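Researcher: Re-running this chain for the archive, since the previous output was lost when a drive failed. Same request as before.
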Amino acid sequence: MSEKMNALTFSEFGGPEVMVLRQVDRPEIAEKEVLLQTKAIGLNYADIYRRKGNYHLKGEPPYIAGYEAAGVIIESNSQEFKVGDRIAVADVAFANAEYVRVPEDHVIPLPDSISFETGASLLLQGLTAHYLVNDSYKVQYNDWALVQAASGGVGQILCQLIKIQHGRVIGLTRNEEKLQTILDTGADHAIILDENWKNRVFEITGPKGVDVAYDSVGKSLMDSFEVTRQTGTVVFYGMSGGDPKKIDPRMLMDTSKTLTGGDLWCYLTSSKERINRSSALFEMVLNGSLKLKEPVKFSLKDGRDAHEYLESGKSSSKVILIP
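Model: Regenerated structure tokens:
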């Protein structure tokens, strides 16, 4: 008989009320895999989208969401990692559970000086921000960068990484209460998304506009182009506000502007990439240049409440689940 574990599951699409903690079979590991006992689990908007049915899901219900967690290896069929190792994962399925089967090439070693809670709070959002400032557009000294949704999880880290690379940041938010959250990241300016925000950007940067606009909202994409200088770049990496309008290639030609897309999974292509990029983030946390707010913690059994809280938009901190 298979051993059991607790997992946060859903069997139908819908609101937070469809989330149920239930006993399911504990996973069995194959060759070159380890079994992670989770100590902290990152909750992300992608988990909400899966719960709502916005993403295609494989297999049969009950479904287990989640991709991000930190904990300890309790079984190993790996030559690289052993029982007792502290690790984290950023892209391993079914992470909303007490135990997670992890391929060895997805393992991210967690330094002793980084807590499980920090590991589960940092990776998905931090790795996203890392490729945005290094690969999608390489931020240079004194570049002006506009960050849409700057008070969100990725936005806060993105603002800090831009400042670490000596860029200048204009953070945008819909919520006046979150202006200070943006300024706390070191952003040079925090402005409200109202009918006058584009004029405010030009007042700050001068008539040319920003060098790069990071847009995770989607429907705001043409607005991002409007405030980006000729020969500048717009980085499109999310659709939290809805699909963008179609882009006319002639506009790109006429203005010499660049549109580039961003997806984390295109960059986490090997164990080396995962570990190198994560290690860079850990180092920034340890030297104090990258600061994370204290996460908001929910028990795994209270996952329904955690979903409701994250979806409400009340938090400016990472939401994590504790098994």
